[in-house]
Input
Amino acid sequence: MSLSLRLLAVSAAFAFAGAAFAASPAATPAAAPAAKPHTAQQQRMIDCNKQATGKKGAERKTFMSECLKGASTAVTPATKPTQQGKMATCNAEAKTKALKGADRKAFMSECLKGHAAA
Output
């Protein structure tokens, strides 16, 4: 008997809560966007997500990271090399010049600073 009373009480509570929720104006999905505009970060996320269409995996992750930081999409690795890209380029150049020891170390230091030795 007490189990059925508890069940009846819980059912009534849910019924009242459901009716109160349905009557609240914030429950309508159309009212939410009009009441609260997107923040700058949210808008940037929407824009970057649209631009990233077709990209997958690491390429998408890198693109989204740069885009969300506010980096211009016009900047390419050729115009602004990353540290990893500089290292690969300088390593390849040092190898073609057959540099070893102190000469290689000096060359790499200058190359990574952006002042490639002639």
Q: What stands out?
A: Helices lie at 2-23, 31-35, 40-51, 57-69, 83-96, 101-113. Residues 73-78 have pLDDT under 50 and may be disordered. The chain has six helices and no strands. The radius of gyration is 30 Å.
